[in-house]
């Protein structure tokens, strides 16, 4: 079995115990490594506006490239959910506040579960997006091209990664976003 490269978006806007959101992301990366995913690259950490606006404190976001050690998409997703749970993540509200969010945004050049299903979720109108979530893993993430909080950090580590459906690179997707969206994603100042 080949060694897959997974791109995982990390985010947090709530502390977990005494640990602030940025520390949650660092600790989660360590936990993913202990569980057998090799960290190939990690973007800088970014301060990003809460999505949707007004839903809570702003986020700290990053993207990591992880070698899957021969794991399939479902196994990687299950591992991400296990790590989220260790950090107090409860899935009670779509797009709600969270101590840790780990999203599998892409795995190699796979389109799962199939192109028709991917297109359905990609083209879903915004109001239905707020209420509905897929019952199965859909990758690449259907909203990837719209989200500066994913594309800006992804451009740090994989600017030439090409979307397997649209054929656009991360750089091209990022350039297509409104300047206002890109400007809202600011590199976290480190001490």
UniProtKB/TrEMBL annotation:
Keyword ATP-binding assigned: yes
Top-level lineage group: Bacteria
CDD domains for this protein: HPPK
Any GO BP: tetrahydrofolate biosynthetic process
A Pfam short name: HPPK
Molecular function per GO: 2-amino-4-hydroxy-6-hydroxymethyldihydropteridine diphosphokinase activity; ATP binding; kinase activity
Record key words, sorted: ATP-binding, Folate biosynthesis, Kinase, Nucleotide-binding, Transferase
Keyword Transferase applies: yes
Pathway assignment: Cofactor biosynthesis; tetrahydrofolate biosynthesis; 2-amino-4-hydroxy-6-hydroxymethyl-7,8-dihydropteridine diphosphate from 7,8-dihydroneopterin triphosphate: step 4/4
Membrane-spanning residues: none
PANTHER family, alphabetized: 2-AMINO-4-HYDROXY-6-HYDROXYMETHYLDIHYDROPTERIDINE PYROPHOSPHOKINASE (PTHR43071)
The family this protein is said to belong to: Belongs to the HPPK family.
Biological role stated in the UniProt entry: Catalyzes the transfer of pyrophosphate from adenosine triphosphate (ATP) to 6-hydroxymethyl-7,8-dihydropterin, an enzymatic step in folate biosynthesis pathway.
Protein name: 2-amino-4-hydroxy-6-hydroxymethyldihydropteridine pyrophosphokinase
């Amino acid at each position: 079995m080949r060694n897959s490269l997974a791109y995982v978006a990390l985010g947090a806007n709530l502390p977990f115990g005494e640990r602030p959101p940025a520390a949650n992301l660092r600790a989660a990366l360590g936990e993913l490594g202990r569980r057998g995913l090799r960290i190939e690259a990690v973007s800088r950490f970014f301060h990003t506006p809460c999505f949707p606006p007004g839903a809570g404190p702003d986020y700290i976001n990053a993207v990591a490239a992880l070698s899957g050690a021969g794991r399939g998409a479902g196994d990687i997703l299950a591992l991400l959910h296990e790590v989220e749970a260790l950090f107090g993540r409860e899935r009670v509200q779509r797009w709600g506040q969270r101590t840790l969010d780990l999203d599998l945004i892409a795995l190699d050049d796979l389109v799962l579960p199939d192109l028709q299903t991917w297109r359905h979720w990609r083209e879903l109108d915004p109001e239905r997006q707020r209420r509905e979530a897929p019952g199965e893993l859909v990758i690449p993430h259907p909203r990837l091209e719209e989200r500066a909080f994913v594309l800006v950090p992804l451009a740090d580590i994989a600017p030439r990664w090409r979307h397997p459906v649209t054929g656009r690179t991360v750089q091209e997707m990022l350039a297509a976003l409104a300047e206002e969206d890109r400007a809202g994603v600011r590199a976290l100042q480190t001490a």
